[in-house]
Each structure stands twice: as C-alpha cells, then as structure tokens.
Amino acid sequence: MKSMLIFFSAIIVSMACFCQLPNPEGKQTNSNGIKFGIKAGVAIAKSKIEYNTATSPGNGEPKSKLGAMGGVFARMFLGHKALFQPELLMVGKGTKENNQYYSYRTDLTYVELPLNILYKPSDSKGSFFIGGGPAPAFYIGENVFYS
Fold first, then answer.
1. CA–CA gap between residue 107 and residue 129 (Å, rounded)
2. Handedness of CA 128, 133, 139, 142 (dihedral sign)
3. What is the DSSP letter of 17?
4. Cα separations (Å) of 86 from 19, 44, 82, 98, 126?
5. Contact 71, 39 (CB under 8 A)
6. Rounded to the nearest 10 degrees, how much is the dihedral formed by the CA atoms of 90, 36, 133, 131?
7. Given CA atoms 26, 27, 28, 32 in this order, what sign does their dihedral have?
8. Are 99 and 112 in contact (CB under 8 A)?
9. pTM for the full predicted model
10. How many angstroms separate the CA atoms of 12 and 99, rounded?
11. How far apart are CA 95 and CA 103, in angstroms?
12. pLDDT tens-digit profile of 90-127?
C-alpha cells in the first residue's frame, strides 16, 4: 500500500498541464518565443536521522512526509528540439517520527531554482521531454512540532 501511494504521488508530481490556444486560422501556434506556466504538486521527503543512544530513548524510524510544491516556470526554445526551462519553486520538505516516547515533526521550507535543459525526442503534439540540470535550493525557514 505504501509503495502504491509513493508511485501515484510521483506520477502526480511529474505531471504538468500545458495549454496552447490556436491562432485565428485554427492552426497550431508556433513553437518560437518564451512560454510561461504555473506548477503545483506534492513533494515527498524523508530524512535519515542518527541518534545518540545514550541520550535519546526509543530510536524510531523517520517516515516520509508530504509537502506542498508550487511555483512558476518559463520555457525558452534553443532550437527545433532543445529547450531551456528555468523554474522558481517553493517546496515544503521535512520529516516526522512517532514512537512510544514522543511525536516529532519538522517542516522545512525551501526556494528552489531548477535550471533544466530539455530535449523533445519527437515532433508529436504532446509534451514528452527528456532532460535535467542543476537545482540550487535556498533554506528559508522551519517549524518544529514536538510532544
């Protein structure tokens, strides 16, 4: 069940919807220029925590935590099949842990700036791309809940 949830969450996160309005003649719009879009989804985060067994009772296993992700992107065509897609995203990450002694949750917030180079392998009308690039992230805050 847990693996199915992670699988479907990954599919939802990786999907993005794009719309094109046809020009007045009813033909598909030209692929030149810059296109802008909005992204929203779910981020799944899990941290590895090492404990000092002398001072920390009950070493529970940290669990995956769902966080929100949202932001904007621009898509610039570099050629017929290559694109540059910078994004500005706000991503919620963190960890949670429950055991017999305590309940602990950390919510971390990051601003990420992925700089992706994409390749479109076919001339189809769909939006299938292969690519990647660096994604610097900047920590902007946290909330810690402990009981």
1. 32
2. positive
3. -
4. 18, 21, 13, 38, 20
5. yes
6. 130
7. negative
8. no
9. 0.65
10. 30
11. 11
12. 998 888 877 777 787 888 899 999 999 998 887 666 67
